[in-house]
Every structure is written in structure tokens, then in C-alpha cells.
Amino acid sequence: MLAVSGNRRQRAARDRMASAALEYAAMGWPCFPGAHPPSAGDRSCSCDRIGCPDPAAHPVSAAWAHQASADPDRIRRWWSQRPQANIILPTGRVFDVFDVPAAAGAAALDRIAREDLPVGPVAYLGDERHLFFVATRGAPADEDEWWSCHLDTSPETVTETPGMRWHCRDSYVVAPPSLLASGKEAAWVRPPRREPLPDPLRLLEVLADSCE
User: Where is each DNA primase/polymerase bifunctional N-terminal domain found (predicted)?
Assistant: First the structure.
């Protein structure tokens, strides 16, 4: 009986990722499988890359931008093949994401509550980063002023550039309940709802101030 219960718990843990990806897809949010912490061994990422610069926080394929989908059949197939895969959400399509250090995110949330400012979904990545989901600006003329955050290339790690990032076109974020390399889970502070996302420029000043 204990063995059966243990197997059920393991299946439930694996099924969480697929279920969450399907929930995002139902909202029209494309998803793609991501690398994850290995269940055994001394590596911090399931990919084959030695010294992975962004362990357990990147897509499993370089084709993610073309293959990401909200099709439930495709998502079921992906996670049946990779049940432990984390969830990657492309940005610059349905939403953009402001990515800030955790302390700055907490300070911004306090100010947002005090001043009754508009805010959308907010996630946190362990005790390291907060993610603020906002309406996408697509490909504005001044986009080069902002870093479209290719976490696997420049800079090589998030910790080297601890300020704010604006994930927009050609970027992505790791979504709850993905398991981080630290062993902690990504989780929602404010879960997504079926309502319009806030204008990014309304939150930009608040988040920029909190990062100073």
C-alpha cells in the first residue's frame, strides 16, 4: 500500500506540469517544455550542456520560438514524453514580463497596494526574482532601448545583471510550478485571471524606482 501511495504521489507531481501547461493554453498562452533539475547526479540541469549558464530555466530546443503552442493535444504529447519538463512561456506575444530582483518586486507590490495601481499576474522564482506580467507592446520602434532577455546568451547568467529586465519579443520566462535549480518552485503571488493585462508603461516607473 505504501508503494502504491508513493507511486501515486510521484505521478501527481509529474502531472502538475502538464496540467499547468494546459491551463495556460486554455488562456491562450503558448507553452513549450523546459529543462529541469535532474532527479539524480551532480548536475543542476537536465540538458547535455556542460556548465549550463541557465540551469533548469531554458527551453529544451532552440526551435522553441517556432514550436511553442497553445494546442492542448500538442501539449499533452510533449509532457507525456517529458513529464518532468518545466514550463516555458514565450513573451512578446500575449504578454510581456518585467523581471526584477525579489526585494525590488516585494517593494513594488507594497507601493502598488498603497497607491491602488493596476497590476496583473505576478510570479516569483524562489527568493531570487519577481515576474510582473503586463500587456505586450509587440515590436515598438524603441525596442532596442530594452533588453529582450535571451537568458542563455547575453549575459550568461541572470545574477551578472541584477537589475530589471523587460522580456518582450524573442524572449521567454519560466512559469509556475516549474522546479528551479535551487530546489524551490516558481509560484504565483497573484495568479493569472481572465482579465486585461495592465499597460507596461504604468508599472515601469514603479518597478524602475524599486530597482534603484
Answer: 21-203
Which structural domain, as residue segments, surrounds residue 6?
2-141+149-211
CA dihedral sign, ordered 112, 179, 97, 55:
positive
Q: What total of structural domains would you count in the chain?
A: 1
Contact 147, 66 (CB under 8 A): no
User: How many CB atoms sit inside 10 A of residue 32's CB?
Assistant: 25
Cα–Cα distance measured from residue 37 to residue 182, given in angstroms and rounded to the nearest whole number: 9
Pick from 34, 146, 171, 148: which is nearest to 91 by CA? 171
Gap between the Cα atoms of 206 and 120, Å rounded: 14
Q: 107-144 pLDDT, tens per residue?
A: 999 999 999 999 999 999 988 999 999 999 766 555 55
Please give the Cα distance from 90 to 130 (Å, whole number). 17
